[in-house]
């Protein structure tokens, strides 16, 4: 581990239709906090307020989100705009904002044999056993995605950022 990596605190956020999931890391090996936030009304404004609270409380060095501007991103326009607003919030809070393309994340996890979102979630539970209780059952084709998956999506983005940063 590089000098100072243990003190590298990053917050990864994944917007979902019901709110957002988040994961806070201190270095590559320590998942400090994680969860979901359900938002019923005025989703963007409330989401930005809650993310600002997380930034104030945990004082991360970097906010990591999905790169919704990437050509393979399938996010709707509202989430694309919210992601841009989250990056602007990071800048105005004096921290780095990083937009990570999903293909980069999938490429990183494919090295561990994980090719689907659920495989990635299982890989994360092996790396961070505290997440095991939050792992939803495997989704069937006709089912909607469980809101807890946004925790794993955020954790996967954060973990990928940290692994790639370590190599740089």
Number of domains: 1
Strand content: 15-25%
- Main sheet: strand order: 3-2-1-4-5
Tell me the number of strands.
Answer: 5
**Sheet of most strands:** 5 strands, mixed
Gross morphology: globular
CATH homologous superfamily? Ribonuclease H-like superfamily/Ribonuclease H
Helix content: 40-55%
CA radius of gyration: 15 Å
CATH class division: Alpha Beta
SS class? alpha/beta
List keywords for this structure.
alpha/beta, Nucleotidyltransferase, domain 5, 5-stranded mixed β-sheet, 5 strands, 21% strand
Characterization of the model:
- This protein has 168 residues and is α/β, with parallel strands linked by helices.
- It has one domain (5-167): Nucleotidyltransferase, domain 5, CATH 3.30.420.10.
- It has helices spanning 43-58, 77-92, 102-110, 117-127, 149-167; strands at 9-16, 19-26, 30-38, 62-66, 96-100.
- The protein has a five-stranded mixed beta sheet, with helices on both faces.
- It is globular, with a radius of gyration of 15 Å.
- The model has no long low-confidence stretch (mean pLDDT 91).
